[in-house]
Amino acid sequence: MAALTDNRTIALTHFTVSNRDEKPLLRISTAGSVDDGKSTLIGRLLFDTKTVWEDNLEEISKSKVNRASHGLDLSLLTDGLRAEREQGITIDVAYRYFSTPKRQFIVADTPGHEQYTRNMATGASTCDLAIILLDARKGVLEQSRRHSRIAWLLGVRHLVFAVNKMDLVEFSHEVFDDIRAHATKLLAGMDGVIADFIPLSALDGDNVVTRSERTPWYKGPSLLELLETVDPPHIAAAQPFRMSVQMVIRPHLDFRGYAGQLASGWVRVGDPIVALPSGKRSTVKRIVTFDGDLTEAFAPMSITLELEDELDIARGDLLASPATAPKVARRLHTTLVWMSEEPLDKQKTYLLQHGTRVVPARLNGESLTLNGIGPVEVETAELLPYDTYRENRSTGGFILIDTISNLTLASGLIEGEVREEEETLESFSDAPFTPAERRKLRALLAHMKRFGFSFDHEDFEQGEGI
User: Fold this and answer.
1) 10 Å Cβ neighbour count for 308?
2) What is the spatial distance between Cα 464 and Cα 466, in angstroms, rounded to a whole number?
3) What is the 8-class DSSP label of residue 1?
4) What distance in Å separates the CA atoms of residue 228 and residue 116, rounded to the nearest whole number?
5) Which end is more exposed in the chain, N or C (fewer Cβ atoms within 10 Å of the end residue's Cβ)?
6) Confidence tier at 52 by pLDDT (50, 70, 90)
7) C-alpha–C-alpha distance, residues 150 and 285, integer Å
8) 117-124 and 142-153 helices cross at what angle (nearest 10)?
9) What is the rounded (10 degree) CA torsion for 143, 412, 122, 22?
10) Lowest-pLDDT choice from 127-136, 253-262, 454-463
11) Residue 270, class by beta-carbon neighbours within 10 Å (0-12 exposed, 13-18 middle, 19+ buried)?
């Protein structure tokens, strides 16, 4: 706790790498239908960029499973589960890391099967660019359409359509042009999307790392050349300041600090601060870290803020700049990706976790089932500060949790506030809890009260909501 008592100020560079030669990072996900060659493509990238350890190559060379027509089955570099190797499909999201002299990469190999659409959404949610694999023999399939749409919904604005297995169609220019024409139609409703099209063979390496002589009609870059030159991803530090309070630190009577991780933006000593949803304002007095004080900090640093005024701020509150404060609402237009075998139930109460804030919520929309995606109106028991997902991934996304099992049921993207004339959801206070929900929530409220949440227990006990 020494850093809380002394005011030793340290340089911001203490927490950063000041190497001018540091290579930028690009996060990539692969998507597409089953057996389009996603795992093989990633394996080829790893192999041709010489970022595979010799023991890994030795392991897959001795594997009893080898579906490659010749040479090594490079898909085994990412398909690590026994079920994946036996069935020749990707089930879980696998992350692999590689680099070139120009850039660092994190690539997510996501499943193509419809049953594992939720896993694909998880992999794409943190990516800057999505590679949509298309089998040259099959063209654009329904799952390819679905994954393209999901990637766009999750804020990915750069899509690379990789037409794979061109060796099986004799590297036909006509086949490639026909697939590109059909894929282009997918982009009509995707505002702001950038699309590139590359003919390749992940098995043989054509146009993956180097340009292929077997496609003399293709004048564009190889896949790796494109990945090395795309615009850098959007930097969270360039967005408005947002920080969800994780805990209140009170080691002694002379210090009250609000600890959390910066979701986006910068904060400096002397900056005005607004705490939401209460709307109370103050000014940053100190930016405290274990090593000492800072004069400024930026996302995604974890810090503790001491304010000029002792405000009633608790876990779950969102700190922001008053000039660029997020909106506050209880009724929201959202898009849900349903991840549970238990379907959406309009009569149930769910827990909505947004940053560090957890509030009860009710839903109204189409009946979503496992891997379903659709618009849903959400009403929370308390005001929720938010940005739309398109504006800020960190404060525009949330998850829904079951009040009984505590399992994550869905991930959500906030689209905007429901206007009064659009309201169709039954008032939260008019919707009674089931007996099972009441028992679970009674124990939950007692636990959450420790973190500063306040509820109307009288209404709750009468079954009139929270």
Assistant:
1) 13
2) 7
3) -
4) 30
5) N
6) confident
7) 42
8) 40
9) 120
10) 454-463
11) exposed
The three-state secondary structure class of 326 is coil
Measured in degrees and rounded to the nearest 5, phi and psi for residue 385 equal: -75, 135
466 vs 454: CA distance, rounded Å: 10
How many CB atoms sit inside 10 A of residue 460's CB? 18
From residue 460, alpha-carbon distances to 52, 121, 262, 345, 350 in Å are 58, 36, 34, 20, 15
Rounded CA separation 428/350 (Å): 12
> Residue 252 above 50 pLDDT?
yes
Query: Which helix (DSSP H) or strand (DSSP E) does residue 327 occupy?
Result: strand 327-338
Q: Which residue has the higher pLDDT, 453 or 45?
A: 45
Cα distances from 424 to residues 49, 163, 333, 374, in angstroms, run 55, 44, 11, 17
Of 233 and 81, the one with more pLDDT: 233
Distance CA 105, CA 254 (A): 46
